[in-house]
Task: inverse folding
């Protein structure tokens, strides 16, 4: 079974879903017997959510949306012109 | 008038665009589907709303010129994000700046031992708390996190933006940035460590916690 330092090393990769099947099962097996690592995993999960929420998606203004729409429409109009 | 066509092959993309198939109208519709996420990414790259919006516009123009159409919609978002990253790098170069690269110290594994979780445990800023670590995170308002996050070296911040904020898998994020998966994973690790240290130092510097010893 893996020890705590190895479990901590795998923690963020586990949250990033970048661990392979075997390292995942070893990690989860460790969690079943280690309260400290469960707490650290929970903390890292919250930290991840904090960043995702804070950075979030800044709302796009109406003016920018209109500007982008105009660019897209010009190109689509050009396509229709070319087909005639 | 339609935008002049540009071969997708001339774009400095991390990977070739999805195969062609659809016309301009369908292409525009799919860009609209991804517009909010792409706008967010551009603002996060530029760390400035106005610059981010200019970046968004240039990204869309470049995507329209390449005009790949779509056969693999699941790859389209990554392809757009790769264009945005390249446009951002080009804009920095044009302004005489460059993407801030990592120093040798930052790339080294030395000094990598900082753990926010352990530091909070040792410093114990809330002795009577039942949720010591979560209470630490609750100290941070959005602007505090943004300040600490924005201070991370862009080389290491970008993988975090792609995976944590925009939900790309590590493999997809590596493709967006045009780097091997191992490089991406290493940068992610460095970014997390800078984030952990940055949050602690921010909390100390702004009086959110009192440090009793140097972490």
Result:
């Amino acid at each position: 079974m893996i020890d705590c330092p190895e479990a901590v090393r795998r923690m963020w990769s586990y949250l990033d879903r970048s661990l392979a099947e075997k390292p995942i099962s070893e990690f989860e097996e460790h969690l079943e017997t280690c309260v400290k690592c469960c707490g650290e995993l929970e903390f890292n999960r919250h930290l991840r959510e904090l960043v995702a929420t804070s950075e979030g998606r800044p709302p796009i203004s109406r003016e920018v949306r209109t500007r982008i729409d105009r660019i897209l429409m010009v190109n689509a109009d050009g396509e229709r012109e070319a087909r005639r | 008038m339609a935008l002049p066509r540009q071969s997708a092959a001339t774009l400095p993309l991390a990977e070739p665009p999805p195969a062609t198939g659809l016309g301009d109208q369908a292409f525009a519709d799919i860009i609209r589907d991804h517009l909010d996420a792409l706008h967010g990414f551009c603002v996060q790259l530029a760390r400035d709303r106005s610059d981010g919006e200019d970046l968004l516009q240039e990204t869309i123009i470049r995507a329209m010129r390449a005009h790949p159409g779509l056969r693999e919609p699941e790859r389209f978002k990554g392809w757009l994000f790769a264009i945005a990253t390249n446009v951002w790098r080009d804009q920095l170069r044009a302004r005489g700046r460059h993407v801030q690269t990592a120093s040798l110290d930052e790339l080294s594994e030395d000094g990598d031992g900082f753990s926010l979780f352990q530091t909070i445990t040792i410093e114990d800023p809330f002795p009577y708390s039942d949720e010591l670590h979560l209470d630490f995170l609750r100290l941070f308002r959005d602007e505090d996190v943004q300040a600490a996050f924005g201070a991370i070296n862009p080389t290491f911040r970008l993988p975090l933006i792609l995976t944590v904020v925009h939900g790309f898998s590590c493999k997809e994020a590596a493709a967006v940035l045009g780097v091997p998966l191992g490089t991406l994973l290493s940068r992610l690790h460095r970014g997390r460590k800078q984030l952990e240290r940055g949050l602690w130092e921010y909390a100390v510097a702004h009086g959110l916690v009192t440090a009793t010893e140097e972490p």
Remarks:
- Chain A has a mean pLDDT of 89.
- Residues 64 and 70 of chain A are 10 Å apart (CA to CA).
